[in-house]
């Protein structure tokens, strides 16, 4: 759904989406292989520092390292696509993933002692001791991006 909204409409759009889908599948494969508990050195409990155990864990660690790197890459790419789809300007970006309009309170890191507004309306907020603020976001449109 978000790919449809954020992907530039050009000749390469389908290939970019297919590449991201393949990368996500490879990421999940790596994460699942790391989490699989039935493989590893047969002596990993009785001899956790043996050469075989250390080598098996080093091999298995490659899966979590690759999965974590792929997850960071997916997140970074997604956030960049999301940012490019928004109008430029100051402020924070909120994503409302639901299919209904909603009003809610959100914590805004570093928002204390700042005037927070949207479309000329000041947002009610309460400053917290740690420098964050609790902000009331009213009537956030469904399935949308709210700046």
Structural class category: alpha+beta
Quantity of strands, as a count:
7
Assign an overall shape: flat
Radius of gyration (CA) equals 22 Å
First CA to last CA: what distance?
19 Å
Tally of contiguous helical segments: 3
| Helix fraction bin | 40-55%
* Biggest sheet: strand arrangement: 2-6-5
pLDDT averaged residue by residue: 83
The largest sheet is:
3 strands, antiparallel
Low-confidence stretches: none
N to C succession of SSEs: HHHEEEEEEE
Characterize the quaternary organization of these chains.
Answer: single chain
Overview of this protein structure:
The strands form three sheets. A three-stranded antiparallel β-sheet has the order 2-6-5, with no helix packed on it. A two-stranded antiparallel sheet has the order 1-7. The chain is built from three helices and seven strands; from the N terminus they run αααβββββββ. The protein is α+β, with helices and mostly antiparallel strands and 147 residues long. The two termini are 19 Å apart.
Short description:
With 147 residues, this protein is of the alpha+beta class. The protein has helices at 2-6, 13-35, 51-84, and strands at residues 94-96, 102-108, 117-118, 121-122, 125-127, 133-140, 144-146. The strands form three sheets. The protein has a three-stranded antiparallel β-sheet with strand order 2-6-5, with no helix packed on it. The protein has a two-stranded antiparallel sheet with strand order 1-7. Strands 3-4 form a two-stranded antiparallel ribbon.
């Amino acid at each position: 759904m978000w790919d449809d909204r954020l992907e530039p409409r050009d000749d390469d759009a389908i290939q970019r989406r297919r590449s991201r889908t393949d990368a996500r599948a490879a990421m999940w494969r790596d994460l699942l292989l790391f989490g699989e508990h039935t493989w590893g050195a047969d002596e990993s409990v009785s001899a956790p520092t043996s050469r075989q155990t250390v080598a098996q864990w080093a091999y298995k660690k490659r899966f979590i390292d690759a999965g974590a790197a792929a997850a960071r890459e997916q997140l970074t790419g997604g956030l960049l696509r999301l940012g490019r789809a928004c109008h430029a300007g100051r402020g924070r970006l909120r994503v409302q993933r639901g299919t209904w309009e909603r009003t809610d309170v959100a914590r805004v890191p570093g928002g204390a002692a700042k005037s927070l507004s949207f479309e000329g309306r000041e947002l009610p907020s309460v400053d917290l001791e740690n420098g964050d603020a609790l902000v009331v976001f009213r009537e956030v449109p469904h399935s949308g991006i709210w700046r």
